[in-house]
């Protein structure tokens, strides 16, 4: 029963972002979802719910143009992995040169 309820909460959150087209409805649906999470008592959802609560103004902007910063986050992860490969950066100028050669 708990697993089913947790799965339904996760699906509901995903459904909010895939089906809602307007910011005001998105905000309302997120608020209702947040309340369901609070009532459910699932501690695993508290981090997500708190993030939505703290950043709702920027999160609901998604409903205006339906875009995310996922590509920027992906690129940042590539840079971090590239930097880790060389165990740090000693020469920043050369590091930036290498990045432009590989990813530009």
UniProtKB/TrEMBL annotation:
Coiled-coil ranges per UniProt: none
Xref: InterPro entries: Transpos_ISL3, Transposase_DDE
Every copy of the Transposase IS204/IS1001/IS1096/IS1165 DDE domain together lies at 1-98
| UniProt name for this protein | Transposase
The species is: Dyadobacter soli
């Amino acid at each position: 029963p708990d697993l089913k309820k947790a799965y339904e909460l996760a699906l509901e959150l995903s459904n909010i972002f895939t089906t809602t087209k307007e910011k005001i409805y998105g905000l309302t649906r997120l608020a209702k979802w947040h309340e369901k999470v609070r009532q459910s008592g699932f501690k695993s959802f508290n981090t997500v719910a708190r993030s939505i609560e703290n950043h709702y103004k920027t999160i609901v902007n998604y409903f205006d143009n339906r875009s995310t910063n996922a590509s920027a986050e992906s690129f940042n992860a590539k840079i971090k992995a590239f930097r880790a490969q060389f165990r740090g950066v000693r020469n920043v100028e050369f590091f930036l040169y290498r990045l432009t050669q590989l990813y530009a």
